């Protein structure tokens, strides 16, 4: 085994020891109280709960969340590309054309989302 991996192995061992000690400590000194209906209900600022504690969300929220994550990851690609583009600027426009193609694919995807009304909040259903 190379000595380059010793710090990584040491960090993994420390992480496992900390996690096991925290779980073990919680089990050993944690309260084992009795369960009551009052303890099992959701806490809503001292008032009696109104309705179920797990409301259903519209699919629109999940759709927007997935689209946000998708475009957020693409933004990370843009930052990585900018660093590489700055270093490889002397090698020609090939890297620029690659990113322009990537941008075109993103644009087509956005137009598709708009035509399918994935971002339309006024639509019911």
Describe this entry's structure for a reader.
The protein has helices spanning 6-29, 37-40, 59-87, 94-115. The protein is mainly alpha-helical. The protein has 2 domains: 3-40; 59-115. The longest helix has 29 residues, at 59-87. The radius of gyration is 26 Å and the shape is flat.
Estimate the global geometry from the Cα principal axes.
Answer: flat
For the sheet with most strands, the description reads: none
Report, as a whole number of angstroms, the end-to-end distance. Answer: 59 Å
**Share in helix:** 55-70%
Give the count of helical stretches: 4
Strand content: under 5%
Q: Low-confidence stretches at least 5 residues in length (pLDDT < 50)?
A: none
């Amino acid at each position: 085994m190379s000595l380059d991996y010793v710090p990584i192995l040491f960090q993994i061992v420390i992480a496992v020891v900390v996690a096991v000690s925290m779980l073990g400590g919680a089990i050993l000194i944690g309260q084992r109280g009795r369960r009551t209906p009052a303890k099992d209900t959701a806490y809503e600022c001292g008032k009696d709960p109104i309705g179920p504690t797990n409301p259903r969300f519209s699919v629109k929220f999940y759709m927007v969340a997935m689209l946000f994550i998708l475009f957020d990851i693409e933004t990370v690609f843009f930052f990585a590309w900018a660093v590489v583009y700055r270093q490889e600027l002397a090698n020609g426009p090939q890297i620029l054309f690659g990113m322009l193609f990537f941008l075109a694919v993103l644009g087509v995807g956005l137009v598709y989302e708009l035509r399918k009304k994935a971002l339309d909040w006024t639509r019911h259903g």
